Amino acid sequence: MDRKRGARDWIVDSAAFAFAVLFGLTLSGMRIDANALPEPAWLFDVDQVLGAIGCGAVWLRRRWPVQLAVGLVLASTISELVAGAMLIALFTVAVHRRPRVSMTVFGLAVLAGVVYVIVRPDPDTPREVSLLMGTSLMAAAVGWGLFVHHRRRLVESLRDRATRAENEAQMRAEQAQRDTRDAIAREIHDVLGHRLSLLSVHAGALEFRPDAPAEDVVRAAGVIRENAHLALQDLREVIGVLRAPVGELPQPAIADVERLVAESVRAGTPVELAFAVEGEPPDLAGRTAYRVVQEALTNARKHAPGEAVTVEVSGAPGRGLTAVVRNRFAGAVAAEGGQGLIGLAERVALAGGEVAYGPGDGEWLVRASLPWPP
Question: CATH classification of 253-374, choosing from 3.30.930.10, 3.30.565.10, 3.30.420.40, 2.30.30.40?
């Protein structure tokens, strides 16, 4: 309330002051024209002074609304020319204070009206009529103020709600961006990790066996060239999706497991595949099973190069989809806390399945179970 008065405030306060002055002058003129001055005569002079003070006090209504209203209500017990200023003060309290405070001040104003009709009765108007007219004017001022008060509260509530909704929408957008970045990171890891692991294995073989037979060198070089080309293609696809306004990352299906195993075999990893899937599983389950096999083959080449790998993929509607990958240690055990396995566990969990991995009986086992409704 106690703030710098703006242009709109000056206009409103000027209008309120003008209303109070005109209201007082109108009542004063009616008294003079009707030659109905109060007795004793000096009371009319006091009334005019109080009316002038009340009109001037209207300019203080923003700083002390309740105090001003109470003061004008008390003055109204003997002065009728402060009525205009009192109505403005009642309206101000109703607008800027809680309804309980407004009704308390209104009740005090009604009591002041009762005192006024007793102290200064109008010989031409019954007391009941005078009290009813005054109470009606005060009730109209307070009612209008309460309407403005509740309307302002409603606007503030809607504004706060809109602000919260905007903030929540921004948070959801940021979360969606984070989820998209995580999904892209997983795809890049899964897609390029498989290709680069093949490159690493055969490049390492050429480095440590420079005296290898020519046919082995040619085969390794062919694998390196082929997978480097495929890695570039995969990278172009991912970047193309990122640049496109709308699109999805290219996703594999369960049928691509056979192609994945064939690539590993051509790269020199002995892989035995047992594929027994009855029907077409849900896209999410099939894609996740493919990623499980892909990650397991990548880790097998990295931590147990040259060792045989067994891949078992089976499932049917109602029984679920299962992917199991086994390989020998070859003297080294894969780290259980690798980011690839952690991401794999997150991927399987998002698909509603379960995954287990770890050493056992001289081999490394990865087993994923995914839901496949009937």
Answer: 3.30.565.10
Q: Are 142 and 102 in contact (CB under 8 A)?
A: yes
Phi and psi of 326, rounded to 5°? -125, 145
Q: What is the structure's pLDDT at 229? A: 66
Q: Which residues pair with 279 in a beta bridge?
A: none
Domain boundaries, the chain: 7-124, 253-374
Please report how the helices 65-75 and 83-96 are oriented relative to each other, as an axis angle in degrees rounded to 10.
150
The 3-state secondary structure of the chain reads: CCCCCCHHHHHHHHHHHHHHHHHHHHHHHHHHHCCCCCCCCHHHHHHHHHHHHHHHHHHHCCCCHHHHHHHHHHHCCCCCCCHHHHHHHHHHHHHHCCHHHHHHHHHHHHHHHHHHHHHCCCCCCCHHHHHHHHHHHHHHHHHHHHHHHHHHHHHHHHHHHHHHHHHHHHHHHHHHHHHHHHHHHHHHHHHHHHHHHHHHHHHHHHHHCCCCCHHHHHHHHHHHHHHHHHHHHHHHHHHHHHHCCCCCCCCCCCCHHHHHHHHHHHCCCCEEEEEEECCCCCHHHHHHHHHHHHHHHHHHHHHCCCCCEEEEEEEECCCEEEEEEEEECCCCCCCCCCHHHHHHHHHHHHCCCEEEEEEECCEEEEEEEECCCC
User: pLDDT tens, 158-208?
Assistant: 888 878 887 887 788 778 777 767 766 666 666 666 667 767 766 766 666
Using CA atoms, how far apart are residues 223 and 198, in angstroms rounded to an integer?
Answer: 8
71: phi then psi, degrees, rounded to nearest 5: -60, -45
Condensed to tens digits (0 to 9), the pLDDT of residues 7-55 reads 777 887 788 888 878 877 777 766 665 555 556 666 666 777 787 888 7
Q: How confident is the model at residue 320 (pLDDT cuts 50, 70, 90)?
A: very high
